Amino acid sequence: MSRIGKQPVPVPAGVIVEIVGARITVQGPRGSLVRDLPKAIKVALSAGSLTFERANEELETRSMHGLARTLVRNMVVGVTQGYTKTLEITGVGYKAEDKKPYLVFSLGYSHPIYYEVPVGILVKLDSATKVTLSGADRQLVGSAAATIRSLRAPEPYKGKGVKYSDEKIRRKEGKSGGKK
Hints:
- The chain is an alpha+beta fold.
- The protein folds into two domains: 9-80, Alpha-Beta Complex (Outer Surface Protein A, domain 3); 83-164, Ribosomal protein L6 (Outer Surface Protein A, domain 3), CATH 3.90.930.
- The protein contains two helices and 13 strands.
- The protein has helices at 59-80, 138-150; strands at residues 9-10, 16-20, 23-28, 31-36, 41-46, 49-54, 83-90, 95-99, 102-106, 113-116, 122-127, 130-135, 161-164.
- It starts with 8 loop residues before the first strand and ends in a 16-residue tail after the last strand.
């Protein structure tokens, strides 16, 4: 039995869960999320919590048991608390501007980069070098943050680029310039 899959997911007050076949819909104060779960995983709502059972003991079904539970837990947390990712931009002249529906980045290239913000993501510019993304869908927030980071990943010599706020950049020493 999956150690993660057998744990129930508590459903807080104010969250509405609808289960129709393999499709689950979770609605809360921060929005509504819909996901199709594997057909071999059965979800039951009882006494304010969701439980997950698998139909058989095949390898694929066993591997999907914990995944399905975690995906639904992320949905419940997303519609109640939401998820945030903060990005920091480091470098001379590197900055971000909010021009709805785009974020415009100046990252040392010969042209500005226009990034279209996905629907469901809220963008807050704390400063020209600090971008905060938030939303109910954990996968969407993480994907948007990873895409923005990939526009100019931080380099190890001066640390210039876009990085997560909690990311540590391993710095390298430059040329020593000394004799052998």
